[in-house]
Amino acid sequence: MQKFKKLISLFFTMFKIGLFTFGGGYAMIGIIQRELVENKKWISQDEYLDIIAIAESTPGPIAINTSTFVGYKIAGFLGSIFATIATVLPSFIIIFIISLFFDAFMQLKVVEYAFRGIQVCVAYLIFSAGFKMLKHVKKTAFNIITFVISFSIITVFSVCAFSFSSVYYVLTGGGVGIIVYLISLISSKKSGKFKKGDK
Question: What is the reported pTM?
Answer without folding.
Answer: 0.59
